[in-house]
Specification:
15 helices, 2 domains, alpha/beta, four-stranded parallel sheet, four-stranded mixed sheet, Aspartate Aminotransferase, domain 2
Length: 431
């Protein structure tokens, strides 16, 4: 997309003049937003847009959920703690109790919850450090097209060359292996096992094997259950910890609370962020098996470890959406709808195909130019949607999980019309 697509007076006078060139999403979504509710965002021009981006999966429950909003307003108006470092607060205690009751215990997870700075990258940093301290090793196995953040430790495990180039120096401590399906006919897990088992394989004994079960920024590559199970076994046999990064794929995005729930594995460490607050408020944490909870007091810390306001909304989200199976059943129906509608898009483009799993889906249309053009046209017609992949070639749907079926269909109608418009004027259509 063009480097700058700014159109409003406000944008021209302040954003382009004062905001860093590092800004990104706003370049392809050129409007100034003033309010949002549910699956809608509203611009200062009065237009409503259907949101199929959801804060890059930070708003799984939509914008300004009324129950979370009411709880937060009540907390603030009653002078509830706003900032508490890692002090005990009622808000944190209530969140932990809800998370234990509705998330951990039903899944037979004995993990403790560690809070750190409020970003996903910080959660990844903490997990990598815990694995290294627990094992006495330094090497981390990561995978092609993985994205774990852009701070230096997490960046070393991130595959994207553009982001890695922003470091200005070498990022070390990681061995990168092919992800599931990366090369046709290659059993990536078997290759890793063979190299680790060979004294001359050239890979230092790892502290951890870390991956996303679905590579959100990497193009919605979805690992098979067999692949994840093999990696869990390899990690155990070779004395490494298994880190499953559920920052983007967690909190219901794949249809279950965790993306790995139906895979028959129990990760040692689970970095979480994005939608864990339920309300788009910054909050991150790492779930850690008790035997690896080895940091001393404040050994990994942060001024904002534990956002009290986020604890308030996160507790409501857990109770509202995960205290029974009703929400999961609803997500299964919506996942089927998304697959059906995205199949329509894939059928329009020669060679295009579906990617992802659950409600974390998209279509690889072959080129970033085409995907970008489709998303730009969709935005012109009232749909916010973005791309992902190593060449931005995947049209990626990350709508709020609470989006009503009728609104899903309305958004997909806009997307299909956009694709038809773009294809009618491209070489692909002519062919």
């Amino acid at each position: 997309m063009p480097k700058d697509m700014m159109t409003t007076d406000t944008d021209t006078t302040i954003f382009t003049r004062r905001e860093s060139e590092a800004r990104s999403y706003c370049r392809g979504i050129p409007t100034v937003f003033t309010s949002a509710s549910g699956s809608y965002m509203r611009g200062e021009d009065g237009r409503e847009y259907i949101d199929f981006l959801a804060g890059c999966s930070s708003l799984n429950y939509g914008h300004n959920d009324p129950d979370m909003k009411a709880a937060l307003v009540d907390h603030i108006t009653n002078d509830g703690i706003a900032h508490g470092l890692d002090l005990h607060t009622t808000a944190k205690g209530e969140f932990l109790a809800a998370f234990e009751q509705h998330i951990l215990k039903p899944r037979k997870m004995d993990h403790r919850v560690m809070f750190m700075g409020p970003t996903g990258a910080n959660a990844v940093e903490a997990a990598m450090k815990m694995a290294r301290k627990s094992t006495g090793r330094t090497n981390i196995i990561a995978f092609t097209n993985g994205f774990h953040g852009v701070t230096m430790g997490a960046l070393a495990a991130t595959g994207n060359g553009y982001h890695r180039g922003g470091a200005g120096m070498d990022a070390s401590g990681v061995t990168r292996m092919p992800y599931d399906g990366y090369a046709e006919g290659l059993d990536s897990a078997a290759l890793l096992d063979q190299m680790l088992s060979d004294a001359s394989g050239g890979i230092d004994a790892p502290a951890a094997i870390m991956l996303e079960t679905i590579q959100g920024e990497g193009g919605l590559n979805a690992a098979s259950t067999e692949f994840v199970q093999k990696l869990a076994d390899i990690a155990k046999r070779h004395g490494a910890l298994l880190i499953l990064d559920d920052i983007q794929a967690g909190c219901g995005r794949t249809g279950k609370f965790f993306s790995f729930e139906d895979m028959g594995v129990m990760p040692d460490l689970v970095p979480m962020a994005k939608s864990i607050s339920g309300f788009g408020l910054p909050l991150a944490m790492v779930l850690v098996r008790p035997q690896y909870d080895i940091f001393g007091p404040a050994e990994h810390n942060g001024t904002f470890r534990g956002n009290t306001h986020a604890f308030v909304t996160a507790r409501v989200a857990i109770g509202k959406f995960w205290s029974d199976k009703a929400f999961e059943a609803e997500l299964a129906e919506k996942a089927t709808l998304i697959e059906t509608r995205l199949t329509e898009l894939a059928d329009m483009v020669p060679g295009a195909y579906l990617k992802g799993r659950g409600l974390m889906r998209g279509v690889d249309v072959g080129t970033g130019e085409l995907a970008g053009a489709i998303c730009a046209r969709a935005f012109e017609n009232g749909l916010i949607i973005e791309t992902s992949g190593n060449e931005d070639q995947v049209v990626k749907v990350l709508a709020p999980l609470t989006t009503p079926v009728s609104l899903f269909n309305k958004g997909f109608d806009i997307l299909m019309d956009a694709a038809r418009d773009v294809l009618s004027t491209t070489k692909i259509a002519a062919e």
